[in-house]
Amino acid sequence: MLEVRDLEVTYGPVRAVRGLSLTVNDGEVVALLGPNGAGKTSTLRAITALATYAGSITFDGREVRSLGVEGCAKAGLIHVPEGRHVFPTLTVHENLQVGATAARGRPGYSFDDVYDLFPALDRLRNREGWGLSGGEQQMVAVARALVAAPRLLLLDEPSLGLAPIVVKAVFAALAEVRSRTPILLVEQNTAQALTLADHGTVLVQGQAVLTGGADELSDRSAVLASYLGQKEIVS
Ligand SMILES: Nc1ncnc2c1ncn2[C@@H]1O[C@H](COP(=O)(O)OP(=O)(O)OP(=O)(O)O)[C@@H](O)[C@H]1O
Ligand SMILES: [Mg+2]
User: What are 165-211's pLDDT values in tens digits?
Assistant: First the structure.
């Protein structure tokens, strides 16, 4: 459903993404891995027409560049950006109501569905955004994207800055989401990402250096760790 071919994203003299190709098919979770500054966020921003790009990105055969930001959302490309962006003065439930306005009649997740996925949020329906922990904010951000009825869910580092137990809760919910919705998952938490993903691509300085099935990437953990500048990948 998503085809990225020879993607280039540049900011003036900075070449953030160079010649990246990847595919997400219906029913799949694809991980985009890589260290700080690798070009992961730039890739997601291009896929939702937030960044200008060269090369080609098609969603169900339509070029994202011509869909534009609004058209991408309308087509069901729903992005949970880096840093969550929960509305601080709205309650949890009001944040979800804002998300639901983006569904535009596409079949998707009901409020009950997302409260089932994130029981912690059910207890916090009336809490305002500013009073939530980082983990709770991440759950709201994902839940808000789900009620927007994604046809493809784009997640930018959902585990960033969260305690391991919260990361577990978020990924447990995503494991259920994947049976309904394909996901393109950007992560630096490689071990966690590979528990969810079918396959993945490692991006370093804007270029794909390694692509393979999740098992294959886990088996090559020493190589992976060297690309990611980590000591070892434990899964
Ligand atoms: N708006 C911008 N203007 C100029 N350069 C940018 C801009 N956004 C990103 N860059 C540069 O592009 C490169 C890729 O950045 P990007 O944010 O896509 O990486 P990332 O893989 O998401 O990193 P992180 O893991 O830190 O979020 C970096 O060198 C970054 O400094
Ligand atoms: Mg990023």
Answer: 999 999 999 999 999 999 999 999 999 999 999 999 999 999 999 99
Cα four-point dihedral sign 179, 180, 185, 187: negative
In a domain, 234, yes or no: no
Question: What is the reported pTM?
Answer: 0.95
Q: What is the CATH number of the domain that holds 99?
A: 3.40.50.300
Q: How many angstroms separate the alpha carbon of residue 17 from the centre of ligand 2? A: 12
* Residues composing the chain: 235
Among candidates 227, 226, 220, 166, which has minimal Cα distance to 192?
166
Counting from 1 in the atom list of ligand 1, the atom nearest the Cα of 45 is 18
Indicate whether residue 161 lines ligand 1 (CB < 6 A): no
Query: In this structure, is residue 235 part of a structural domain?
Result: no
